[in-house]
Amino acid sequence: MTAVGYTTKLPRSGTVPRWAPWLTYGAATALAVILSRATGANVALLVVAAILLAGATIYVWSRAVEGSRRATDRVATLAVTSTFAIAMVPLVSLLVTVIRRGSDRFDVAFFTESLRNVVGDGGGAVHAIIGTLVITGLATFMAVPIGILTAVYLREYGAGRRLATAVTFFVDVMTGIPSIVAGLFAYALFALFLGPGVRLGIVGAAALTVLMIPIVVRATEEMLRIVPNSLREAAYALGVPKWKTIVRVVLPTALGGIITGVMLAIARVVGETAPLLVTTGVITSTNWNPFEGRMMNLSVFAYFQYKTPGVPPEPYFARAWAAALTLIIIVLFLYFVARLVSLRWGRTEIQR
Amino acid sequence: MTAKSEGLPKVTRPSRAGDRIFSALVTGAGILILAILAGVAVFLLYKGWPALTAKAEELPDDETFLQYVWPLAFGTVLSSTIAVIIAVPLAVGVALFITYFAPKRIANTLGALVDLLAAIPSVIYGLWGIAVLGPAAVGLQQWLYDHLDFLPFFKGPPSPTGRTMFVLGIVLAVMILPIISAIVREVFAQTPRSLREGSLALGATRWEMIRMTVLPFGRPAIISASMLGLGRALGETMAVALILSVSGGATFNLISSGNPSTIAANIALNFPESSGLAVNLLIATGLVLFGITLLVNAAARLIISRQIRG
User: Fold this and answer.
1) Is A232 in contact with B26 (Cβ distance < 8 A)?
2) How far apart are the CA of B8 and the nearest CA of chain A, in angstroms?
3) What stretches of chain A show up as alpha helix (H) in DSSP?
4) Nearest-Cα residue of chain A relative to residue B139
5) What is the ipTM of this complex?
6) Global pTM value
């Protein structure tokens, strides 16, 4: 790595004041806001213009005082910081939108009534919430044992075996399966035995299982990797069989991380729509039984309320947004509990 | 059985029934995963086969399978390509910001905020795109049409609702940004300290340090992360099904209200009401999607594993 292009003069002795970047960004933003008010021009364009203007100003200023290399550095800092700010805009906008529009129908009826015999205003999504819980619970019930056992195989038994290499590779590939393809797979599998047009909660759960397994495997494998070998060796030295070592020593040590991984996996699939759209069907009343009859869930509920509203559409849209808010609350709850678990029982436990 | 790579001493223990059962159990779980993946391919092929071999007259709209799937595949690749083009520079910037620019104390929190973007269900992105971003982009699309209509992408006429390929590309970009940035971030943080501090010690500014050590070190990761993001965008369903207003065939015109659909969205939109051969047809298009994403993901994984070994 030769210093091509770095034969320029040493930086000049001066530096721009500390507040210079802030002043420049502030002035550019203020100018953009004023221009947007005055001309009604597009906000996105003005933001771009403001960033470019701020960049140009700080470059000229810094180049005059500090030299071109420092000036480039300052422009790069501005550019990198702006990308982060830009990336945060959708998150904030999305959360604000969902909370504002979702709170209209975020009421008692929404959580106690189904849509049975409801036309227009009123009704709720309790049937969809029940469906979401049943389907996700069933998927978790199937995916977690398979995922954990596979991870145990990969870390504790598989080292160097060809089967393990293949499983590792295909778990990675499985991560990339489009969710709708998982849904089609589950449909094709069950349609083979139960005839075409099959719509059951269990079919949706099977599709979600396919999506959950690779996440659980990855998370568990990662945790087993950092369980110290001294623990295993100590157990072996006491004459404990390998399987008992794994079940009683290795897995409990990694438990915190595994729980975190499982919760993140649940958070990933709880909002899945596409695979359930093709497997569980649409229904307006409550169904607790995943082995019989169609089953609604929150995301499909939100989709259909928005996509095929009645007249007037407003109550349908309001229900869609309320379902979206409920989903976000569930996902964020899982996400934060997962973070707490990993903070509380995470690596500290293992390093003890 | 001792795991050599973990440095355990090679000892021979008497074989025990519990050990044999447990070993069979976990090996069985591994094999089950291979079986599931093989099952995905086999069952899709089995159910899609009637449509793949059907004559044009038998299929809806009197089109052969290839004629049917071509505009969908085009729309899928086009929307994902736009998403990747928008998302990659942003994701690299975000990763750089979190690893080397943000104050160390809050860097983790900022990273968690970006990860939060990945946790939001896709149907909600769809609602957001149709209700917020679409209307907000109408003005921008008008501007692009007014000033850049000599490009085939902005030939217009601009859609009054904003339910266009352009808006979809932005929404997909937001959805894959956290995936790309999480991988890139991890690799950026692993840039050898000796290289980074060496360049700083030689008088490099922070940006020169990043350009000369962090970016070259992270380049393979950027490429493979982009391909993983591409794979995710290719399979994205609900955001497309909600946002895109579909009509007409393949076109590069990104801002009009006539857009080609994507494979995944087409399945979601038509599957609930389909029966007979139409179901087989949709499953066959799903097989095509599966093939495309499999190729993209496998290529990305190969690049990653080669970098780890090299």
Assistant:
1) no
2) 8
3) 20-39, 43-66, 68-102, 108-112, 126-152, 162-175, 179-194, 201-225, 229-237, 242-245, 251-270, 274-277, 298-307, 314-345, 347-351
4) A42
5) 0.86
6) 0.88
